[in-house]
Amino acid sequence: MERWDIFCRVVDNYGDVGVSWRLARALAREHRKDVRLWLDDVAVLARLRPELDPGSEGQRLEGVEVRKLRDTFGTEDVADVVVETFGCDPPDSYVQAMVGRAPVARWINLEYLSAEEWVEGSHGLPSPNPRLPLTKHYFFPGFTGRTGGLLREADLLARRDAFQTEPGAQAAFWTALTGAVPPGGALKVSLFSYEGAPVAPLVAACARLPIPVWIVAPEGVAARLLEAAFETGEAERCADLEAFVVPFLPQDRYDELLWACDVNFVRGEDSFVRAQWAARPFVWHIYPTEDNAHWVKLGAFLARYTAGLERAHAGAVTALWEAWNRRDGAPSRDAETQAFPGAWAEFAGRREALEAHAGKWAAGLALRRDLAAAIVDFVDNLL
Ligand code: TRH
Q1: Which residues 6+ apart lie within 8 Å of 353 measured at CB?
Q2: Which of 4, 54, 166, 194 has its CA 20 to 30 A from that of 338?
Q3: Which residues line ligand 1 (CB under 6 A)?
Q4: Would the pTM of this model clear 0.85, i.e. be above it?
Q5: Residues paired with 36 in a beta bridge
Q6: Structural contact between residues 374 and 322, judged by C-beta atoms closer than 8 angstroms
Q7: Residue 103, preceding bond cis, omega within 30 degrees?
Q8: Which domain holds residue 324?
């Protein structure tokens, strides 16, 4: 069995680990690789996979050997394929040990996801190590055939379709999650965001819709913003508006929340991709970067995502995404409060067309090879 070592150092939040775990599991489960996932902070993965012991130095889950990162490695430790995620660099002693290994290990850097054009030109490029006789190859996820594609488990879309076409499965999910089943015709909204998201204006705008609305936020930033919206009186509970803060979900159950809702507010990288596979309208809170480069990333994805949409629908998506990411530069609270309801009402009012588009978008992406298959193929061709 080919040995793969995947290294991940937690920057912050959950996405680095969320993506690394998905890749490790797919390689073990679908490509029969002998995979070790080296994490500097196992506790973060244990949040997504509560079966894991956060304090363990080594444990197995779904065919993956989850290891706490250490400093010392020898040549015999070096795998056939080494994947560093998001440029995290394996430990120095591991890189040194790679020099002595024959045949030389194939070394991949799995980069962050972006819809920007330049990614296609950079995907697969070699980068010789400046000091050692080693070469690392850059592997970029993406939305086109000239990138590494997106993580997508082999059974994901079949499980999604079974859930979304089976009212009993949805009722069971809602009952287990909230103790109740949403009223017929209710608009179900999931919330996962960074600080600064205009959650209070969203809740106030939901209360103005002529239909029942259920808002569900797993514990974290969005849940705190949701509770604050009511505590500050910016939003009032009313007969047709239910808001639930639920425990942070195991990663595979979070997919079910995305499948069960009508609109999903997601963030970062992994939930952003999972919302696309859910084939439901979604709003992306992009990870803000100091240099404001995230606006370019947001615009690049919106351009691809809205290309197939009627202009009016595309405008509604763009307006809500920009308001959610405060493109208008965090206007004064009253301006934002006025602007938001309009953007939300426009978006919510076009839900049927946007859901059809979301289904087409997911189906289009699913025509491409998934990222795990692509990375296996890529390293096989390096031999
Ligand atoms: O947590 P994030 O903000 O992670 C971010 C991104 O990865 C970003 O690219 C990176 O630069 C930054 O970290 C450092 O968002 P993301 O990527 O969606 O990861 C969240 C993970 O948590 C994802 O795998 C889904 C999972 N999740 C659950 O398992 N249960 C839950 O209840 C929720 C809300 C999320």
Answers
A1: 309, 310, 313
A2: 194
A3: 11-16, 18, 48, 112, 192, 218, 248-249, 251, 254, 267-272, 287
A4: yes
A5: 5, 65
A6: no
A7: yes
A8: 156-365
